[in-house]
Write a structure and sequence with these properties.
mainly alpha, 6 helices, elongated, 2 strands
């Protein structure tokens, strides 16, 4: 005699063509990586006409905000090796955006300065950057955006989260 088995509950499937990501979505690194991919696409779309890479944009913004910055400080802040940063700066010098200037107090130090073309590029970049992320972040309130940035910067710095 056979007994009837109860029907198995159907497993909820992700949307057509989408993969089940449930084994990954609890990981901060995965979520941060997915968000970074989306935001890099936004960056590429907005800065493609300027032929500007993320690292070059970062260098421009740091140099604009730190007039006496040197290569070592830039490398440490952006977590770039000296050779990789040197290649990036060489490319930026060739394009006329920055120049290396020997320090007046310490002749061994090489400071990075914006050229006139670099200052103009910074102005253009700041205008673009002011609004470019808005569509990608439209689901977040201004407070949530600020909190997201604060939390990501804490993770990047390795700082322990403070109690709220």
């Amino acid at each position: 005699m056979t007994t009837a088995r109860p029907a198995a509950k159907p497993v909820a499937k992700p949307a057509t063509g989408a993969l089940d990501q449930s084994r990954l979505t609890h990981l901060v690194g995965y979520a941060a990586s997915r968000a970074a991919i989306a935001l890099r696409r936004v960056f590429a779309h907005h800065f493609a006409p300027l032929d500007l890479k993320v690292v070059e944009f970062s260098v421009l913004m740091l140099v604009a905000a730190n007039p006496e910055v040197n290569q070592k400080q830039l490398g440490a802040t952006l977590d770039l090796s000296a050779p990789n940063l040197a290649v990036t700066l060489d490319r930026m010098v060739e394009r006329g955006w920055v120049e290396r200037v020997r320090g007046t107090r310490d002749r061994r130090a090489m400071h990075i300065h914006l050229t006139a073309a670099g200052r103009e590029l910074v102005r253009r970049c700041e205008k673009i950057a002011a609004t470019m992320e808005a569509p990608a972040l439209q689901r977040l309130s201004a407070a949530e955006r600020a909190l997201l940035i604060e939390l990501l910067m804490k993770v990047a710095a390795g700082a322990p989260a403070r109690a709220r």
